[in-house]
């Protein structure tokens, strides 16, 4: 059914294109000449359909048969000048297309036709859909929360792999101070996983290690590709995390360690990946109910930042770097985000409640706070090595207890 609708839409668009506009000249009709060799068929590379972001450019190249054709003046036609800008090459063999606004357009290629009608159509077409970058949507949503954002300085996003977006937004807070937001948005599937990390691929669990080293050891221990990661649980300086820790169904720490003893206080939530590859934020009181369902787990915070789509009121004015995780209502999408802080010229930092507004702008339904301050860190694998994307307030990577990594599926061994 989807294919039928697509071709009906394409046919309608082609009909409209051929009936209007200055770019819709009909193909050149040539009187027959014994020496003329007409093009009988054309093809485009890439073949499409294409999806492009606003501002993105792509070059589309034509090829034709027969190769020894003599009438080779190709005519390119732009289906919607409000959506696409088009610049043909001098020899008309290719065209550079730039996406200028969201929408859909058909790009047509025509070749000269003989006047006797022996060749009716030797052209090609490509359907192009233009969408706005994810960061544009986030920036607009941030601006709607005037208590955290007064102006967008710049925003960018790109697809790391299918199902994983990276988003970066520079903005000014309500007091005009600079802010830097770094985030991953991941659709959890068979090919995209959320995994816990600790020192030396869990061999040295309970000790501290830099996030980049934890990511490297997770790759080596599990045979996966780590695309990116953030720091996770709060921890004792010895390296013991406050919350539970699980990896691949194995429990390394099952209890919630008290943060203070007088009065007795715990960080009462943990972040769990369940056996169905969904993410749940589980309260300490309910933790035992999930003991047979947990695949990955790290500790969380004592209260949600966002719950059931609503930003929670938190009376805490402390401004600091923040690391946060959000989930969709069904747990199949997650957001990992870092807001830098403690630098007047780089990024001021956020309160816990401002962190909730930021994650709400990203689209999260439920949000948990993770360890912040000098622990806040986000990394990405680039050219075979892990790069720290933010500016940790300690000046370098802090040695931490555990992290959360976005990975690919387990690689199958080569035969």
How is this structure best described in words?
- Helix 2 (134-144) packs across helix 4.
- The chain has helices at residues 2-19, 134-144, 211-222, 352-362, and strands at 29-30, 41-45, 50-53, 57-65, 75-78, 84-88, 94-99, 103-110, 113-114, 124-131, 151-161, 164-172, 178-187, 193-198, 226-231, 245-247, 250-253, 258-261, 264-266, 269-274, 279-283, 294-299, 306-307, 310-311, 322-327, 333-339, 366-370, 378-382, 385-388, 402-407.
- The chain is elongated.
- A hairpin with a 5-residue loop joins strand 12 and strand 13.
- The chain has a six-stranded antiparallel beta sheet with strand order 11-12-13-26-25-27, covered by helices on one side. The protein has a five-stranded antiparallel beta sheet with strand order 14-30-15-28-29, covered by helices on one side. A four-stranded antiparallel beta sheet has the order 2-4-7-6, with no helix packed on it.
- It is built from four helices and 30 strands.
- By secondary structure, the protein is mainly beta.
Write the layout of secondary structure elements.
Blueprint: H1 2-19, E1 29-30, E2 41-45, E3 50-53, E4 57-65, E5 75-78, E6 84-88, E7 94-99, E8 103-110, E9 113-114, E10 124-131, H2 134-144, E11 151-161, E12 164-172, E13 178-187, E14 193-198, H3 211-222, E15 226-231, E16 245-247, E17 250-253, E18 258-261, E19 264-266, E20 269-274, E21 279-283, E22 294-299, E23 306-307, E24 310-311, E25 322-327, E26 333-339, H4 352-362, E27 366-370, E28 378-382, E29 385-388, E30 402-407
Parallel strand pairs: 1-9, 3-10
Antiparallel strand pairs: 2-4, 4-7, 5-8, 6-7, 8-10, 11-12, 12-13, 13-26, 14-30, 15-28, 15-30, 16-17, 18-19, 20-21, 20-22, 23-24, 25-26, 25-27, 28-29
Helix pairs in contact: 2-4
């Amino acid at each position: 059914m989807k294919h039928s609708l697509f071709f009906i839409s394409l046919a309608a668009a082609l009909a409209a294109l051929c009936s209007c506009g200055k770019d819709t000249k009909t193909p050149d009709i040539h009187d027959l000449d014994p020496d003329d060799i007409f093009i009988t068929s054309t093809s485009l590379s890439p073949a499409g359909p294409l999806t492009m972001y606003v501002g993105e450019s792509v070059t589309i190249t034509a090829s034709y048969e027969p190769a020894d054709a003599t009438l080779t003046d190709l005519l390119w036609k732009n289906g919607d000048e409000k959506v696409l800008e088009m610049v043909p090459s001098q020899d008309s063999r290719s065209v550079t297309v730039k996406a200028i606004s969201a929408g859909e357009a058909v790009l047509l290629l025509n070749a000269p036709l003989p006047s006797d009608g022996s060749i009716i159509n030797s052209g090609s077409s490509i359907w192009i859909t233009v969408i706005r970058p994810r960061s544009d949507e986030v920036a607009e949503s941030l601006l709607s929360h005037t208590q955290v954002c007064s102006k967008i300085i710049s925003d960018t996003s790109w697809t790391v792999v299918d199902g994983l977006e990276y988003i970066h937004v520079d903005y000014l807070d309500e007091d005009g101070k600079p802010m830097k937001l770094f985030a991953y948005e991941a659709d959890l599937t068979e090919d995209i996983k959320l995994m816990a990390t600790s020192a030396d691929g869990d061999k040295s669990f309970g000790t501290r290690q830099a996030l980049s080293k934890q990511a490297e050891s997770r790759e080596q221990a599990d045979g996966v590709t780590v695309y990116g990661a953030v720091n996770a649980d709060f921890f004792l300086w010895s390296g013991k995390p406050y919350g539970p820790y699980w990896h691949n169904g194995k429990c390394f720490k099952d209890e919630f360690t008290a943060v203070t003893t007088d009065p007795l206080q715990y960080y009462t939530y943990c972040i769990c990946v369940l056996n169905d590859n969904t993410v749940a934020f589980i309260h300490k009181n309910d933790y035992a109910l999930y003991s047979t369902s947990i695949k990955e787990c790290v500790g969380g915070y004592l209260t949600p930042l966002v719950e059931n789509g609503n930003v929670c009121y938190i009376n805490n004015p402390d401004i600091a770097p923040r690391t946060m995780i959000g989930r969709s209502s069904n747990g199949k999408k997650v957001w990992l985000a870092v807001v830098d802080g403690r630098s007047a010229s780089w990024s001021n930092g956020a309160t816990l409640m401002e962190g909730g507004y930021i994650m709400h702008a990203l689209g999260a339904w439920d949000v948990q706070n993770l360890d912040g301050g000098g622990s806040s860190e986000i990394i990405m694998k680039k050219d075979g090595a892990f790069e720290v994307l933010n500016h940790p307030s300690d000046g370098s990577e802090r040695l931490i207890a555990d992290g959360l990594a976005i990975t690919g599926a387990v690689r199958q061994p080569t035969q």
